[in-house]
């Protein structure tokens, strides 16, 4: 069989953890996949690869790269071979994320109310005061069920020894869940029988779980509250996802101009007149939500919406002000928060993190910069980052100067060689680095996580940067029993 040749010539780095192959042997979770590939020729796999691209194009599954001068929509690159996680591994991940989200919700409630964690000197007051995403304007606002993080995407990586680590917490407007769902649909088209044979757990109930959670936030005790998804509009890089989720949940997709405030209540303009809105799933950043309170030049939000939010006549998911909990400098304190709020040891560990505002840690990073990844605390998408092992002396010098000017805006972490998985590239199997973003929903009934998430792939050989804006792609993620 031609596919036997693919496996035979699949090359992995012995120093890294490859999720399919260890010491020249196929790991048990991948054996059924390898057997299934055996019935396909390489030409058939090439055809499936081409079909996947056409399906993504026809579905309009795209994203925008803002730095691209051409300003074109791009198809999200998709690799046809799934990434496989065992039920036992997933159970560990699920428990760790649940523990973390319980903690972060307690932290957000505390930091916008009593601030006991600061009084007890677990977190330095200046760290919070200097966080640009800590919004004093929302202090004291009571949110339904004390839930601040309704929708989250927690990024995980797997290190050289196969251990999962939390890389970062996305608690504001996490994106990518539509790609997780569409990846599964495309995989069903490419390998229709394989998912059932492999006992792959389903992910397609995510929109239903999300809709139920949003409905449960309604301030009005009515059987059918009005839920809407608020989008910045067609020019947003995740607009495809906004339309996809609104359609899947059967709710209205609205822009700021479609909403109006009257007597501290939010109404949606319809052809039948004004209709009161109970819950808003917002995909607009905090600073654009209300020009009366935040950025006065914002055309995306709704003037006066924060007044209605404070009065409790409308629920917002996620809560405004969550950015203080996913600041990369605050991230370093989450293990201490878990011990403080839950009196538990962290189930999933952080990546070791150096605070540049600490003189000793800064000195250590400067002396070992070629082994570090340096990140700005308030940037995402792979921007504002220095990979020390790839950087020139000049690039490192410029970063050191920037850090010296404003150390609070930077953290550093040792470069961890992410695990690799096989990808079908140019008719061959090639090992590429991956991370994982599971999507968790917090509601009155607890934390629910659909089994899988979005596996992002660094398609460039040797690259550790998986972001789509930096040339990354994605895979379907299978959790198998």
Automatic annotation (TrEMBL):
Residues 82-458 form the Circularly permuted ATP-grasp type domain. Transmembrane segments: none annotated. Pfam families: CP_ATPgrasp_2. This is Circularly permuted type 2 ATP-grasp protein. It comes from Lacibacter luteus. It comes from the Bacteria.
